[in-house]
Specification:
This protein is α/β, with parallel strands linked by helices and 446 residues long. It has helices spanning 14-29, 53-72, 83-87, 89-95, 111-118, 164-168, 176-188, 206-209, 214-221, 242-250, 267-272, 279-292, 311-324, 351-376, and strands spanning 5-10, 33-34, 43-48, 77-82, 101-103, 124-126, 146-150, 152-153, 172-173, 193-197, 229-232, 254-259, 297-304, 328-333, 380-388, 394-398, 410-413, 423-431, 436-443. Helix 9 packs parallel to helix 10 (242-250) and helix 13 (311-324) packs parallel to helix 14 (351-376).
Length: 446
C-alpha cells in the first residue's frame, strides 16, 4: 500500500480545500504518496461540491473526466468525497461504473481505511456521519503565504434555499485552543494571512461556549507573532454584534474587510428565505460598520429569482445596491434544490428572468466597482505579492480589500526581484472595473 500514489481533485469552496488537506495529511501518515499528476495516480479522489446546480454540473463533468484515467490510465480506484457524494451516493455509484468508493462529508478521517477495504470489495459507500467533530489530530502539510482555517462545521440557519445542513450537519464550533494552535503552526510554516471560514462565522462559539466568541478569538489570534493579516468570511448579519465590530476595529492584524451575505433586501423575500434579519437591520449594520471603521470594505452576495420575487421585489434589491454601493458583490441565480423547503414553493421564476436579473445586478456592480477603484488612484496600500508573470517585470498581489480568488488583484511593475509572499507599499496609478495597477514604492515595514 505504501507505494500507491494518490491525487486529490478539489472542487467547490475553501471549506472543501481544508477537507482535502486533511485527507492528504491522513494519507501521508499511512505512507501514501500525494501527487498532482493525474497520470501518475493509482488512486484519484474527487472532492465534490453539491450546493447548487452549476456546482453539481461541474462536479459531474470532472468525475467523468477522471473516469478516463480509470479506463485508459494507471488509476486503480476512483473515489468521490464531499457534498455531492454525501447527497447522491447511490446514484453516483450506479450511474458511473468507474466509481469505486463514496466518502461522505463526516467520514473523511476514514479515507485510508476505505482504500484498504477496496482491495477486498468492489464498491464501498461510507456516508451518514454528518455531525462528526472536526478532525483535530491531523497536521496540514501544504503551505503558501495564505491559509484558510475552518472555525466550525455545519449550520443551524436552515435557509429555505440551502441544502447544506442536510449535508454538513448542525453547527459545531471548534475549541478556541485548537484554532489558535493551528494558526500558530501555520504561521511557523510561513503563512502570513489567515482566513477564518465557516458556514456562518458570526455564530462561532454559541454552541460550545453559550456565547458568541468570534470577538475573543480575534483578540487571541491578533497576539500571534509573525501573522500579518486575519480575514473573516461568511459573516451572517443577524448575530453581528457590537463586540465583533469593536474587535475588528481594535485588532490591527484583522483586515478591515467583512463578507456579509445578505441574499436579498425585500422583507417578504427574506422571510420566505428564513433569513433571520430585515432590511432595517441590514441597513443599520452597514451604517454602523462604516461609521465605526471608515476604511471598511463590505462584500456581500445576493440571490435573484427566488420564488415569489416579482419585478417589484427585484427593483427594491436593485435600487438598494445602487444606493448602498457595496465594495464587493456577487449575484447568484436561485437554484431549486430537492430537499429544501423552497423547492416546494409556488411562484417559481423562469430561467430567462433569473439570468436577466443577475446580469442587471452585475452590470450595476461593475459600474460601482469602477467608481470606487478610480477613487483609489494616487493612494498607497500594503500589497501581498502572490504571483510573478513570465515577463519577469510584472507581479500580482492583493490589498486588504480583496479576498483571494473572489475579489480583485493589483498588477505591479518592478525591475527588482520581489519574493512571493512578501509585502510591499504600492501607489495606485490606474484601474480597471475590478483590478488595480500600481507602482512599488518600497518593501513594507511598520
Amino acid at each position: 500500500m505504501n507505494e500507491l500514489s494518490v491525487a486529490i481533485v478539489t472542487l467547490g469552496c475553501s471549506k472543501n480545500e481544508i477537507d482535502s488537506e486533511i485527507m492528504s495529511g491522513i494519507l501521508k501518515n499511512y505512507n501514501f504518496n500525494i501527487t498532482i499528476n493525474l497520470d501518475e495516480a493509482d488512486i484519484i479522489i474527487v472532492n465534490t461540491c453539491g450546493f447548487i446546480d452549476t456546482a453539481k454540473e461541474e462536479s459531474i463533468k470532472v468525475i467523468w473526466e477522471m473516469t478516463k484515467y480509470k479506463k485508459y490510465g494507471k488509476c486503480k480506484y476512483l473515489i468521490l468525497s464531499g457534498c455531492l457524494a454525501e447527497r447522491y451516493p447511490k446514484e453516483l455509484v450506479e450511474e458511473i461504473d468507474e466509481v469505486d468508493g463514496i466518502l461522505g462529508t463526516g467520514n473523511i478521517k476514514n479515507i485510508a481505511k476505505l482504500i484498504k477495504e477496496l482491495e477486498q470489495k468492489n464498491k464501498i459507500i461510507n456516508i451518514g456521519n454528518i455531525n462528526e467533530e472536526y478532525t483535530e489530530e491531523i497536521k496540514r502539510t501544504e503551505f503558501t503565504h495564505t491559509a484558510y482555517i475552518k472555525i466550525s462545521e455545519g449550520c443551524n440557519n436552515y435557509c429555505t434555499y440551502c441544502i447544506i445542513p442536510k449535508l454538513r450537519g448542525h453547527y459545531r464550533s471548534r475549541k478556541i485552543e485548537n484554532i489558535i494552535s493551528e494558526a500558530k503552526y501555520l504561521v511557523d510554516k510561513g503563512v502570513k494571512e489567515i482566513i477564518l471560514i465557516a458556514q456562518n462565522t458570526t455564530d462561532y462559539g454559541i454552541d460550545l461556549y453559550r456565547e458568541y466568541k468570534l470577538p475573543y478569538l480575534l483578540y487571541e489570534l491578533n497576539k500571534i507573532e509573525g501573522l500579518e493579516w486575519i480575514r473573516i468570511l461568511y459573516m451572517y448579519p443577524d448575530n453581528f454584534t457590537d463586540e465583533l465590530i469593536k474587535a475588528i476595529k481594535e485588532n490591527e492584524k484583522v483586515v478591515k474587510y467583512v463578507d456579509i451575505p445578505i441574499q436579498h433586501i425585500n422583507d417578504k423575500i427574506l422571510g420566505k428565505m428564513n433569513r433571520k434579519t430585515s432590511k432595517k437591520d441590514i441597513t443599520k449594520l452597514i451604517e454602523k460598520l462604516r461609521n465605526e471603521i471608515p476604511e471598511i470594505i463590505i462584500r456581500t452576495t445576493v440571490i435573484v429569482g427566488f420564488p415569489g420575487e416579482k419585478n417589484e421585489e427585484f427593483d427594491e434589491l436593485y435600487e438598494y445596491i445602487k444606493k448602498i454601493k457595496f465594495d464587493r458583490l456577487g449575484a447568484f441565480i436561485y437554484s431549486r434544490e430537492e430537499g429544501t423547503k423552497a423547492y416546494e414553493y409556488d411562484e417559481q421564476v423562469d430561467e430567462e428572468t433569473k439570468i436577466y436579473r443577475k446580469n442587471r445586478i452585475m452590470e450595476l456592480q461593475q459600474k460601482i466597482s469602477l467608481m470606487k477603484n478610480k477613487d483609489k488612484i494616487g493612494k498607497i496600500y500594503k500589497v501581498l505579492i502572490e504571483e510573478k508573470y513570465d515577463d519577469n517585470n510584472t507581479y500580482m498581489g492583493r490589498t486588504y480589500m480583496d479576498s483571494p480568488e473572489i475579489d480583485g488583484i493589483v498588477y505591479l511593475k518592478s525591475t527588482k526581484a520581489i519574493n512571493i509572499g512578501s509585502f510591499v507599499n504600492a501607489k495606485i496609478v490606474d484601474c480597471l472595473e475590478y483590478d488595480l495597477m500600481g507602482e512599488i514604492l518600497s518593501e513594507y515595514s511598520e
